[in-house]
Structures are given as structure tokens and as C-alpha cells.
Design brief:
By secondary structure, the protein is of the alpha/beta class. Helix content is 27%, strand content 26%. The protein contains two helices and twelve strands; from the N terminus they run αβββββββββββαβ. It has helices spanning 2-47, 182-192; strands at 51-56, 61-66, 69-75, 78-79, 118-125, 130-132, 139-141, 147-152, 159-161, 172-174, 178-179, 202-206. Strands 3-2-1-12-5-8-9-11 form an eight-stranded mixed sheet, covered by helices on one side. A hairpin with a 4-residue loop joins strand 1 (51-56) and strand 2. The longest helix has 46 residues, at 2-47.
Length: 208
Amino acid sequence: MRRFLCGVRFWLAVFFACVMVAGNAGATGAAEIAENQAGATAAALDAVPVYKIYVHKVSHTLELYRDGEVYKRYGCATGMNTGDKQRPGDHRTPFSWGYVMASIPGAEPWTPSEYVPFVVDEVVYAGHWTHDFGDGKGEIAGAYGPWFISLNTGWDGIGIHGTHDENSIGTNASEGCIRLRNADVQELKDIICQVNGGIGVQVVISED
């Protein structure tokens, strides 16, 4: 009987030892999986590009930066009147924040976008939009091209969009917005919208 009990105790000890080993192995494996997943997530976040747009009014150039380096460069048209925007309807492209409540920390009126960048707040399909430029030609179809990239600038209605008149690119021709060729605004939209639908991309407009 004693031999039998000793045998039972021996095999129970072996059984529990195996269970403990298996448990430790499972815990180690789960920890390794969790660690690998965390590493993959961090790597994916690091891989998300950061885009920023610079508009140079005098040279009529829009530059798209990716992770701090110029990624794309486009010709553009800006407001038909030069200088910083002073009031609605003055046909100037702003480079400083306006009076409209902007909900951006530090965006006080007349703060240059160089110090507190404007931001993309909406990307809207504009292929069906029309506009009357007040030149006697009436409503113009396709006046904004395929897309309107709305900017929070502290002024109403400022954005980056296409045009019905690509000959205006490289001139002071708009009512205050930034015009691109239709193919260029399509490409710009496709690129920035890869991250958060383009919302939050910073935009700096400068008088150079």
C-alpha cells in the first residue's frame, strides 16, 4: 500500500510540474505576442507621414512637404489684390489669421500663419459647383474644379481648389482662395487625404 501511495504521489508531482511548465510557456508566449503587436503598432504609427502645405504668394507656388522635406510643388494663383486680407470681399489671400473664431490655440487676429499655421478643416467635392465672378459672364460651371480643400484661417470661404481657367495659374486672379490646376488639386487631395482624410494638415501662407 505504501508503495502504491508513493507511486501516486510521484506521478501527481510529475503532472503538476508539467502543468506549471506549460503555464509558464503559455504566459511567456502571450507576453511575446503582446510585445510584438505593440512594436508593430508603434512602427505603423512612425510610418504615418506628416504633411504640411506652404503657399508662396509672390512666386505663385504651393509646396507640399512630407516629413519635413518638399514632396510636391505646384504652380498656383492667389488673390487678385496683393497684401494681407483686411476684410471680407477684398480679394486678398490671407497670410494672417482673421476675426472669425478659429478654435485654434494662439490664433489671435493678425497672427501670421508662419507662427500659428492655418489648418485644413474640410475636403469637399466641388465638381458640380458654379460661381458668378461678377464679370458679366454669369454662373460658371466647374469654377472650383473637382475639389475644395477648406482652410480654417479665421476668414470665411478661404480654401485651395481647382479652376475653370487654368491660364490664370501663376497670376493674381482669385477672390482670395488658392487656385491649382485641376489635375494638381486632385493629386494634392489624394495625397493628404491618406491621413485622417486630410483634416488637420497645417498650411502656411507667406508673402514671398
